[in-house]
Amino acid sequence: MPTKLLLTVSEICEAMEGDRKDAMDDHLPQFPAFATELGDAIIRIGDLAGAVSAKVGSAAKAKLLYNATRPDHKAENRVKKGGKKY
């Protein structure tokens, strides 16, 4: 599990680097590196979820619905003093 989690983190780091450099992907030059590295992270998450039989899709759907009800996630509250910037 730790290796699979850290491989996911490495893909996120590569996405950040692709964005920082505004680079196109080396292997799929029709896509920005940012997009392909995020795709790699999704693949790694799916691989890990499958390995441990985690219901990631169901959990993500439930989390999206829950987050939609959170006052601190509303745009008008984010711009207030002390609101979340991101």
Structure characterization notes:
There is one protein chain. The chain is an all-alpha fold and 86 residues long. Helix content is 64%, strand content 0%. It contains 4 helices and no strands. The longest helix is centred in the N-terminal third of the chain and has 20 residues, at 2-21. It is flat, with a radius of gyration of 16 Å. The two termini are 28 Å apart. The mean pLDDT is 95.
Short description, anyone?
This protein is mainly α. It has four helices and no strands.
Q: What's the topology here?
A:
Elements: H1 2-21, H2 33-51, H3 56-67, H4 75-78
Helix pairs in contact: 1-2
Subunit arrangement of the protein: single chain
Backbone structural class: mainly alpha
Low-confidence stretches: none
**Spatial gap, N to C terminus:** 28 Å
Count of discrete alpha- or pi-helical segments spanning 4 or more residues: 4
Largest sheet report: none
Shape: flat
User: Fraction of residues in helices?
Assistant: 55-70%
Count all strands and give the number.
Answer: 0
Query: Whole-number radius of gyration?
Result: 16 Å
Helix/strand order, N-terminal first: HHHH
Beta strand %? under 5%
Q: What integer is the average pLDDT?
A: 95
Give descriptors for this structure.
mainly alpha; 86 residues
